[in-house]
Lipoprotein transmembrane (Massilia psychrophila), 195 residues
Amino acid sequence: MTSGFNALLAGAVVACAFLQTATAAEISGVKFDETVKLAGKELKLNGVGMRTKFIVKVYAAGLYLPEKKNTVADIMKIEGPRRLTLVMMREISSDDFGQSFMTGLNNNIDKAEKSRYVTQISKFGEMFGTIDGLKKGDVLHIDWIPGAGTQCELNGKKIGETLPDVNYYNAVLKIWLGDKPADSALKPALMGQAR
């Protein structure tokens, strides 16, 4: 009787684990699909997490990759498309978002890298200037599309220019995955280590 119950219990645990992986991931009420299509490829949700600042929830983030990776080096070497999705949890001005972006870059790339990307950084700054700000519920995608470049989309609409250098996209990812990430708890979550 006990062994039969244990087998039943083990089967239920396995079934629940399977159901959890088959459904969308959720964090603070924000759902992230387990897969998305980008540039004709299916990307898998690598990890999700919450960006907080002084205990205030700023945005939920999800990182999508062609295959799951759990080290920064492996993520940076991926040749296929990649997507970082931010879902805003509060309103933030375009100036504040742009400033946070620049702080994140400055903290994670050296002067030589920064001088190489000065044009792309300037274009990103111009992009932040074209939006009034980000509102609660807004969805921002920061995509790498091979053969095209770094592309941003806000609520389904392309914003800014497409920037062709993959090294620039990697520099942008370092805001969240670099040695001094924007949020030290979000980095391992995006790498699938805290899910």
The two ends are 35 Å apart (CA to CA). The chain has one domain: 2-190. The domain at 2-190 is CATH 3.50.70.10 (Chalcone isomerase). Residues 2-22 form the longest helix (21 residues).
